[in-house]
Specification:
Mean pLDDT: 92
Strand order of the largest sheet: 2-3-1-6-5
Shape: globular
CATH superfamily: Ribosomal protein L5
CATH topology: 50s Ribosomal Protein L5, Chain: A
Number of domains: 1
Largest sheet: 5 strands, antiparallel
């Protein structure tokens, strides 16, 4: 029950505006992951950036299981398997960005698509996490069963061979 697992990997591209840029980002993220992307909306109004609440400004895909692990391997290869200690939060989850999609293994430059980077957010869990999210008889997970930052760092070092700076 102490084993650490990857719950999900979320891949996100924020364009900041709707239109052709968003369509290109959506096509790119679908090509990288092989899954269908959804669009994300602005949460609040920001007149300085000409954003209004509900405006579509980004795209994301959530991967689970073997698909998530395979994508994470490639994304870490794009970062040369080096992460910063600040990438990890107290709950053991971590995220990092890939500056240009051409760094991703297997991705070729497409002149029709602008140069985009993307964010990769990884959520970790232990078996038994379901008791905190189920609908019926929901209960808390004990403190000793939660994943700490140090445990997440150790997991990434041993499982994926990542170097932490």
């Amino acid at each position: 029950m102490r084993e650490i697992l990857i719950e999900k990997v979320t891949v996100n591209i924020g364009t900041g505006q709707p239109g052709e840029r968003l369509d290109n980002a959506k096509a790119l993220i679908e090509r990288l992951t092989g899954r269908k992307a959804i669009e994300t909306n602005a949460k609040r109004r920001e007149p300085a950036f000409k954003l209004r609440k509900g405006l579509e400004i980004g795209t994301k895909i959530t991967l689970r299981g073997k698909e998530a692990e395979g994508f994470l391997e490639k994304a870490l290869a794009a970062k040369r398997k080096v992460l910063n200690g600040r990438n990890f939060d107290r709950s053991g989850n971590f995220s990092f960005g890939v500056a240009e999609y051409i760094d991703f293994p297997g991705a070729k430059y497409d002149p029709g698509i602008e140069m985009y980077g993307f964010d990769v957010c990884v959520t970790l869990k232990r078996p038994g996490k379901r008791v905190s999210v189920r609908r019926i008889r929901k209960s808390k997970v004990g403190k000793k069963h939660l994943i700490s930052k140090d445990e997440a760092v150790e997991f990434m070092k041993t499982r994926f061979g990542v170097k932490i700076e």
